[in-house]
Automatic annotation (TrEMBL), chain A:
Keyword Oxidoreductase found: yes
Catalytic reactions on record: 2 reduced [adrenodoxin] + NADP(+) + H(+) = 2 oxidized [adrenodoxin] + NADPH
Positions that bind NADP(+): Q197, G198, N199, V200, R241, R242, E253, G419
Intracellular or extracellular location(s): Mitochondrion
UniProt EC number: 1.18.1.6
Name of the protein: NADPH:adrenodoxin oxidoreductase, mitochondrial
InterPro entries: FAD/NAD-bd_sf (IPR036188), Ferredox_Rdtase (IPR055275), Ferredox_Rdtase_adrenod (IPR021163)
UniProt keywords, alphabetically: FAD, Flavoprotein, Mitochondrion, NADP, Oxidoreductase
Cofactor(s) needed by this chain: FAD
GO molecular function: oxidoreductase activity
From TrEMBL, chain B:
Biological process terms in GO annotation: P450-containing electron transport chain
Record-linked PANTHER family: FERREDOXIN-2, MITOCHONDRIAL, FERREDOXIN/ADRENODOXIN
Gene that this sequence comes from: YAH1
Species of provenance: Arthrobotrys conoides
Domain annotation 2Fe-2S ferredoxin-type: ranges: 91-194
SUPFAM superfamilies attached to this UniProt entry: 2Fe-2S ferredoxin-like
Membership in a protein family: Belongs to the adrenodoxin/putidaredoxin family.
Cofactor(s) the record lists: [2Fe-2S] cluster
Keywords: 2Fe-2S, Iron, Iron-sulfur, Metal-binding
Transmembrane segments: none
Name this polypeptide is given: Mitochondrial matrix iron-sulfur protein
CDD domains: fer2
Amino acid sequence: MKSILKHPLARSTAWRGQRTSCRTRLINTLHQPGDPEVASRRADAPFRLAIIGSGPSGFYTAYRVQSKLPTARIDMYEALPVPFGLVRFGVAPDHPEVKFCINKFDEVARHPNFTYIGNTPIGSESLPFSSLLPNYNAILLSYGASKDKTLNLPGESTLSGIHSARAFVGWYNGLPEHKDLNPNLEGSDGKAVVIGQGNVALDVARILLTGVDELRKTDITEYALEALSKSKVKEVEVVGRRGPLQAAFTIKEVRELMNLPSVGFEPVPPSIIPQDTSTLPRAKKRLMDTINKGTKSYPLEKNWKLSFFSSPTAFLSSSSNPDQLSHIRFEKTAPVEGTNGEKVVGTGKHKDVYASLAFRSIGYKSEPISGMIEAGIPFDEKKGVVCNTLGRVAKPTPEGDIQVPGIYTTGWVRRGPTGIIASTMMDAFDAGDNIVNDWLGGVDFLGKEGDVKMGWEAVKREHSRIGLKAVHWSDWDKIDKAEKERGMKIGKEREKFGTEEEMMAIV
Amino acid sequence: MPPPRASSIFRNLRSQCSNRLFHRADNILPQCSRPITTRTPIYSGAHNRAFTTRTLRPRLSLPSSIYIKQFSTTSYLSHGHLTPPKAGEELKVTFVTKEGNEFTFEVAEGDNLLDIGQAHDLEMEGACGGSCACSTCHVIIDDQEMYNLLEEPDDDENDMLDLAFGLTETSRLGCQVKMKKEIDGLKVKLPAMTRNLQASDFK
């Protein structure tokens, strides 16, 4: 099979641009490992892999490929100058132990067959996706989920005081894109509502309620510390559409909130949360017990609560200040029978919750990289993921899915924005195994058999023609060192650079 | 029996293919990135000494290039700080890999299972560096009585175990289980890491 662009299916426009939905049945027209008609490749056959995105999914896949196929040449492309994706910009600053995986990633990046290419977004306005295709045997899409899901409710985009949790997290973690969010914590009426009940929602609640002296020791940005030190937020309500058993947060995050000094938890009414938890599965049982146990006393200086069965319908302002959020209208919901609480319907009863700050934390979506669809890579707009069968990118057809040769995906762009670092690691290991097995097994990859792929050595010509300045691992070392030095001066582990210009000035 | 025809392999791909491929690679490739012959623990500051009671050998002949030693500036010791056991005080611990291979090591009191596993290049991850902040070093204690001899897991460990794949009644995090005399002869299984065939993938 020739290059993906010349793939007969890539030429068909039947599926192109249409809203597709991924199926999972894979009808495989390609040669498969173990197929008696196919000669397997030698383990020392030159193999070039491009990884798009330098978050944990990309790095763990690289790690797996390196350990199974040490001769593989891996080039990792990252839009920002700095690596590690959500490990740097998503993991809460008070969870430094979760970031230890960076040590492993650093080891991966120092492998002689690994090249890090930072400051290089892939897309029409930067390095075109099509410039990668002829230069690699395989491309791994692991660029995560960059788009925020919205509620599309009245007032959501017009009133001030409403933020996406993603932007807030990016703001306190020093993501250049959200540096100027400036949430008005000082002018707040003391109450914040977080809509959504995942771990990001609890991260937001915890950062709002934790004393700044605790946060000062972490790598949270100085501007966020400054704003949080002036914060008037004393109450945080975390609201979900469904019941406690359907909440997506995990117990560690709940327990941390329960253990915050001077923070009380408003007990959940016994009618809403199971009291006899003995029949529940282990994880749910322990989670319910932790919520039921709550905090030793309530109320305290600052407080938080979990509200269930409430679906927002409108963001509203007061007549005295028509541009500022003053309250949120929620419709009470009830579980649909027979769905085990998974589905809820509105009951028609409403209640207003007064709060001048709201954080929308209802998940992320991935977007296709421009040029990707044109290259024959199917994207499920509805789910916001690349269509794939267990990490092998595959086009949905009425008969089943057809694998796109040489294109793989992992992480949130593969399975949607859920799961902890361990699930991302397993997913990435699966992707790494699939790539290596397919390669050694002799299935079709990008381009013709026997083509010599030049990887970054060829791409860099196009790269410099466009006028991009690549950041390599030695450059990141310099940024890393400078950030640590900045941090040391103020008693922190690290003080991140807030803008790409500052990062590039070090390079 | 002749090898199955391609068409029959793919007919039931979603339940067979990925699993088959997974195992196939494990047969082809060495489990470790270092030369296989050096499956020996390296003790910091001490002379090297082989403690493996069984040495892994590749089951298939391999092109020599696959043994290329992986370059790494972060020393392999970084996650393998084992103390050499004093003569006569060695404790035995057996790991059963997901392929069912058993490896027995002689270790010192106080070493934890994650460090032991990693020092011997078993396929065991400690994404958080052994700080009980992830569930990647999940192990299953083979024997309920042995499990009862261990100290109860604390809240932090249980919180992480809640998220582990394939959790069992005798699951523990390897980073939290330290060797001691009472559990000499401990046998632990490494859970099958693949989540390829989880139901959620087929929704």
